[in-house]
Amino acid sequence: MTDFELHLPESPERRVLLVSGSPRTGGNTDAVLALCAEEFAAHGIATETARICDIDLHPCTGCEACRVTGTCIAFRDGMNELYPVIERSRGLVIASPTYNYTVTPEIKAFIDRLYPYYEFEEPRPGPYKARLAGQGRLMIPVGICEQNQASEMRYTIPVMRDALEVVGYETVTEVAITGHFYKGTVASDQPVIDRVRAAAAAMAERMVA
Fold it and tell me: What's the pLDDT at 10?
C-alpha cells in the first residue's frame, strides 16, 4: 500500500474546495468563488480556496509512474499540497473563464494532475476505477465568458464536468455566466449573484442533509 492510499479518507469532511482557474487575480472567477464561500459559510460549511495561477503546478508529462506508485512522483510541487485538501473535502467548486471555447491552461493542468486517483487493471488498456468514487463527493462547475451566448463557452463546462465526474464527483448543478469580461463586474450583477448563491446553497443542503 502506498502513502497515497494510506492518506485517502474513507469519508471526506463537510468542507468545500474552491478552485479558480483564472490567471487574473480579483477577476470575475475569484468574485464568483467568494460568493460561494459566503454562502457555504452561511450553512456552516468550511471552504478552502486554491488559485491555480498562484500555485507552482507543473503540467502532467504522461510518465504514468503514478499508475505504480499511486501518487505523483514526477514533481514535488503545489499539487502535492493540494492532494490532501482534495481528499478531505467532500465538495468541489471548479471555475474557469473561457479561453478559445474551453478551460484555461491552469484548469487543464489541475485536471490532468488528478490522474493518480485512478486505478487501472492490466493488460492495457484494461478497465479502471476512481479512488474517490463512492464517497458522496459533490461538484459545481462554473464557466464564465465575455460573449452573451452560453454556446460561446462551447467546451468550458463539459471539460470540467465530465473529467471530474469520472474522478468520482457528482454534479449538483452547473453555472454558466455570460456577458462578463471586465474585472469584477459579476459582483454587481444581481441575477448572477442569485444563481451562484442558489447553486452553492443546493450543494450545502446536500452536504448537511
Answer: 67
Strands (E), the chain: 13-20, 46-51, 89-97, 118-120, 128-130, 138-144, 170-171, 175-177
Rounded Cα distance between 87 and 109, Å, is 18
- Whether the Cβ atoms of residue 145 and residue 156 lie closer than 8 Å to each other: yes
For the domain that residue 152 is a member of, what is the CATH number?
Answer: 3.40.50.360
Of 100, 164, 103, 137, nearest to 10 by C-alpha is: 137
Question: Residue 113 sits in which domain range?
Answer: 3-208
Name residues of the chain where pLDDT drops below 70. 1-10
Q: Are 168 and 130 in contact (CB under 8 A)?
A: yes
pLDDT tens per residue, range 109-139: 999 999 999 998 888 888 989 999 999 999 9
CA distance 176 to 32: 11
Instruction: Identify the residue whose cell numbers are 448543478.
Output: 173
pLDDT of residue 9: 64
How far is Cα 15 from Cα 92, in angstroms, rounded to an integer?
Answer: 9
Q: Is the distance from CB of 57 to CB of 109 less than 8 angstroms?
A: yes
Structural domains counted in the chain: 1
What DSSP character marks residue 151? G
Distance of CA 139 to the CA centre of its chain: 7
Whole-number pLDDT of residue 6: 37
Cβ neighbours of residue 208 under 8 Å, at least 6 residues apart? 14, 43, 44, 45
**For position 126, what pLDDT does the model report?**
83
